[in-house]
């Protein structure tokens, strides 16, 4: 098995996977370890022959991971070049002849005529040996990857064509990057940070190398790095945030025969999910189990799910986790559930209102840091006057079983701010519902409400939580588009996070901001009493892109196959903002395609818009092949010349694979 260290996230020691736990009697813990991969790739469980061999592997892989994570940008590029050298050096003699270089160019998505390739090869072959050794290959790569697009931008502002003076760099930052007053101060910071030449630094200038290093750094990325940190007000009521949410979290695959796994909870929580779901059913020996009822999905113990939740709930984010409970258990096993939640989660489990008072509005994520909230049906309310009889009768209709449901008082008492109730109407909710009561909607029901009564839905969601879940017909664990539910302020838009694709790209894009903490503050017009109708927005902005690409990934791994890339820019937001435009395709060039095309958009509600950049391999006879994508909230876009660092279908970074764009955003004052 060939494994890239860059793909390994962590090494777990002992029986820390369901597979290794199942063979624990056969293989002692000191022989076992697990490689956990980034993205959706399954874990690799390994068993050594001796404890010392296991420790050697564990220490070695951990050291490699540490080294990989501590590399700077230059070291990453050097490693990437070395990886290519190793792949192309077919006879493993540590050198590369011209035939091997030609093969390498095909592997790297470069279609170059033989005469020009030989010219570059000869330039790099300083020793005149007819082969490229390590340093000569690095030189060959540098010649190959010289960026004419960035050099042109550099020359537009450099009077001598060699360096940018402090004043010239300041002009570039002010005019192109739209930085305004802080451009002079920032220009000096960029020179100090990215300029490799000490001579240029002393002169207060930036060379082309420093300029390129700046533009490919996080500061030169399209996503504003300041928006990546925790920067939003976390003291508003829970209902004022979009909350990253998972549906049927226990499933690794489809809804009918898929595996139920604790690992699925770990993956969801690591992705920043702050609402996870548990379907509970009576199990043998008085132990509740978790699985998708009336299907062939495997079963896991509720006890193990709660243990996993307790261990991983706050590793990615300190803000509260909502445990959405689909309770199909008898009263007896509900009592067991309550006991397990209480004993395993301890102080993490919220058991009563924070100040002991009945709330008039929900508490904030800040107030609930480190707390797990149970979402389930509740006997009565937080007000002492409510009774068991009224609530049990009212709530019975929300269960799958047509029989009147019975509730365990012990489990009910653990429900505080997320009491599940049946949705009657927005008018009923406005007159009778409490802020701690919340309803769940199927995607079709939520869509209909959004279309017919969008303004009321927005207002409802400013005070109460709403959860939306995929249709039961989605047995393949496919997803619905979450955007139209965010447009009406639904907070908990639950997706099958195990399924990659457009819908999860949008979800990952929205929650990439604010420190990836799983909470994103809704726009102010969705939090106050203003009447916002997603079908009739008011504000509008203009948007423009100019695009080139670098080192795009291969789709077909067959030797000699080279992509014909095109870029599509997709806007997701209110209905008037939904739009797509694409460039022409570039024939046989995935290495450095140059489009130089302009795409124009009008954005009416920028606060709700997501922009998705998709790169595809054009195919005139069949569907285009996906190559990479990146999704960013419109409000997090940095204007100017920016790089977009592409992600795979699985959401993983594709090394050195970027788009180079020029973004111009301007107010549009007249109706278009």
TrEMBL record:
Record-listed Ca(2+) 4 binding positions: 562, 564, 588
Residues in C2 domain copies: 522-648
GO molecular function, one term: phosphatidylinositol-4,5-bisphosphate phospholipase C activity
Biological classification of the source: Eukaryota, Metazoa, Chordata, Craniata, Vertebrata
Gene3D superfamilies hit by this protein: C2 domain, EF-hand, Phosphatidylinositol (PI) phosphodiesterase, Pleckstrin-homology domain (PH domain)/Phosphotyrosine-binding domain (PTB)
Needed cofactors: Ca(2+)
Taxonomic source organism: Hucho hucho (huchen)
Localization terms from the record: Cytoplasm; Endoplasmic reticulum; Membrane; Nucleus
Active site: 247, 292
Binding site for Ca(2+) 5: 617-619
GO cellular component: endoplasmic reticulum; nucleus; plasma membrane
PROSITE patterns noted in UniProt: C2, EF_HAND_1, EF_HAND_2, PH_DOMAIN, PIPLC_X_DOMAIN, PIPLC_Y_DOMAIN
Catalytic reaction annotation: a 1,2-diacyl-sn-glycero-3-phospho-(1D-myo-inositol) + H2O = 1D-myo-inositol 1-phosphate + a 1,2-diacyl-sn-glycerol + H(+); a 1,2-diacyl-sn-glycero-3-phospho-(1D-myo-inositol-4,5-bisphosphate) + H2O = 1D-myo-inositol 1,4,5-trisphosphate + a 1,2-diacyl-sn-glycerol + H(+)
Name of protein: Phosphoinositide phospholipase C
Keyword Cytoplasm: yes
Amino-acid positions noted as binding Ca(2+) 3 in the UniProt annotation, renumbered to this chain: 248, 277, 279, 326
Binding site for substrate: 375, 377, 440, 467
Keyword Ribosomal protein in record: no
